[in-house]
From TrEMBL:
FMN binds at residues 62-67, 77-78, 83-84, 106, 141-142, 187, 197. The keyword Translocase does not apply. Catalyzes the oxidation of either pyridoxine 5'-phosphate (PNP) or pyridoxamine 5'-phosphate (PMP) into pyridoxal 5'-phosphate (PLP). It comes from the Bacteria. Substrate binds at residues 9-12, 67, 124, 128, 132, 193-195. This is Pyridoxine/pyridoxamine 5'-phosphate oxidase. Residues 42-160 form the Pyridoxamine 5'-phosphate oxidase N-terminal domain. It catalyses: pyridoxine 5'-phosphate + O2 = pyridoxal 5'-phosphate + H2O2; pyridoxamine 5'-phosphate + O2 + H2O = pyridoxal 5'-phosphate + H2O2 + NH4(+). It comes from Neolewinella marina. Keywords: Flavoprotein, FMN, Oxidoreductase, Pyridoxine biosynthesis.
Amino acid sequence: MAIDAKNLRVDYQADELLEKDAPDQPFPLFDRWFREAQDSDCPEPNAMVVATVTAQGHPAARVVLLKEVDERGFVFYTNYDSRKGQEIDAHPHVALVFNWLELQRQVRIEGRVERLDDATATAYFQSRPKKSQIGAWASPQSDVIPDRDFLERRRQELEEQYRDTDTLPKPDHWGGYVVIPEMIEFWQGRSSRLHDRLAYHRPAEAEEWQRERLAP
């Protein structure tokens, strides 16, 4: 098998990112870009890559869905026993990437991770569609399973068990994380590969953000 992608190119000319248009704090800019991604019909604008490392330093990445941005950071939910959950427990620092191709934009985030409190996770879990609640119980995420029928049997058993209720109890192994950012970089594609990159840095426990321009 061979793939030759050397000549696949796009000349980015959608927009620019200049200091005069960028606020001193990164969250207002993220809010603006996220809303513009929603308005531009980007498919799943809340989709983000979450990159982790194992205790041995081996990297891993996958796409998950952002569920909230609050005053602390970026919130997502998952199975704590999954591979990413175990890797976060071993090394509670991650990188996130949002890639909005329609706008020729990317946001990259680095930060430390903390678990959400159980009450918040339970409230969100029980607001999800019932089928999604059943799925969280049915799947031993990241474990090896014998076949697809294993999942279907588990799903059917749970549907029967909870047929008379619209909400299930939240599994102990399921919950939320907040990524508390220490760096947020905004990337805007520009012509001739001379892209705009503005990075905001805030070391742990610091209150003020520092902004700087990076070479593309």
